[in-house]
Amino acid sequence: MNPALLLYCRPGFEADCQQEFAARYPLDGRWQTGAGYAIFEADDSVELMELHQQLDVAQLIFTRQALLALAKVTLGERDRLTPITNALAELDAHYAAPWKAVWLEHSDSDEGKPLSGFCKRFGGIVEEALQKRKAIDERRGRYRLHLFFTSMSEAWITLAKPALASPWPLGIARVRMPTGAPSRSTLKLAEALMILVPDAESKLKPGMVGVDLGAAPGGWTFQLVSHGLKVFAIDNGPMKGDMAIHPHVKHLRQDGFKYRPQSPVDWLVCDMVEQPARIAQLIADWFVRGHTRHAVFNLKLPMKKRWAEIERCFGLIDGALYSAGIEYQLTAKQLYHDREEITCYLTRIKGR
């Protein structure tokens, strides 16, 4: 087969994954999809392989992981290992062993999750076989080997460049529910800080001030307080648990769209359920007026034309900040804990 790109995504968002990729990288080719993944085979294989050398999954919103697919292997019921090792032995020398590691994966879907136990059991067998062949070498390996199983009888042989790929299996950062958090929404901000905010620990320091718009019941406020920030929690609804009585939380029953701080704050977070364009305009206004330097916010997406809505919202932010002479960095991801939404991180670099 010709080389292809295998992209992991949230089940139900395969078309959005395709649309974003096509918008960013207008290559001619063909798509095939399954629940939780999309495969792109370009007409120009050389162009595709060159793209993979520089494709940073962190720059893609709907894609969790991006892998170079080199072969599809049909597996037998009794011997699944031999077809895989034979296919690996036939790889082009540029992609051949040693590899840094081997990961056995499946899609994060109802169809793929039953393969989880198999991948864990079979993974040890595959790794042992490759170790015997001296095919795994963390120091000398250029790529990480991924075996992507669509069923017990079919697997794709794929490779990742560790520096540009997601460091988590299935492209999903694992976040534990913290004790005392008032809602599971806290996991969303925790994941966002892991994935979207470079060196988050140095950017969230004790004594800083944050604002949480649409704070109730306090899941996102909890994360800011956990990092030592003092938080203005803005919501007409009630805060719950420790967030209702915490000495570093000041709950103001005000409209999140109308509230503005008396002095600039370090962080703004916002998880309000509202039209995405209205949220984009709100966040842009905070930056234009100099109210904050960093912001993490959600954009609740429509059922259709999601990519078009994202481009519209990012255009609103870019237009406002450009007119104000503000240089900025904006990154976004559909997180594991997101639903019909994406989470964005906006930070001010400098102004002219």
Task: Summarize the structure in short.
This protein is an alpha/beta fold and 352 residues long. Helix content is 28%, strand content 27%.
How would you summarize the topology of this molecule?
Blueprint lengths: L3 E5 L5 H11 L4 E6 L2 E6 L2 H8 L12 E10 L6 H9 L12 E5 L9 H17 L11 E8 L2 E7 L25 H10 L4 H4 L5 E5 L5 H8 L3 E5 L14 E4 L12 E6 L5 H13 L3 E9 L5 H18 L2 E8 L7 E11 L1
Structural overview:
- The chain has 352 residues and is an alpha/beta fold.
- It folds into two domains: 4-171, VC0802-like, CATH 3.30.2130.30; 186-351, Rossmann fold.
- The protein contains nine helices and 14 strands.
- The strands form two sheets. The protein has a seven-stranded mixed β-sheet.
Please describe the structure with a list of short key phrases separated by commas or semicolons.
352 residues, alpha/beta, VC0802-like, Rossmann fold, 2 domains, seven-stranded mixed beta sheet, 14 strands, elongated
Q: Please give the oligomerization state of what you see.
A: single chain
**Overall pLDDT score:** 96
The largest β sheet comes out as: 7 strands, mixed
Number of separate domains: 2
Taken in chain order, the helices and strands follow as EHEEHEHEHEEHHEHEEEHEHEE
Using DSSP, what is the number of strands?
A: 14
Q: Please estimate the helix content.
A: 25-40%
Radius of gyration: 22 Å
Structural class: alpha/beta
Terminal residue distance: 51 Å
Spans of 5+ residues with little confidence (pLDDT < 50)? none
- The CATH C-level class name of the largest domain: Alpha Beta
The geometry reads as elongated
| Beta-strand residue percentage | 25-35%
Question: What is CATH's topology name of the largest domain?
Answer: VC0802-like
Give me the CATH architecture of the largest domain, please.
2-Layer Sandwich
Task: Work out the helix count.
Answer: 9
| Major sheet: arrangement of strands | 2-3-1-4-7-6-5
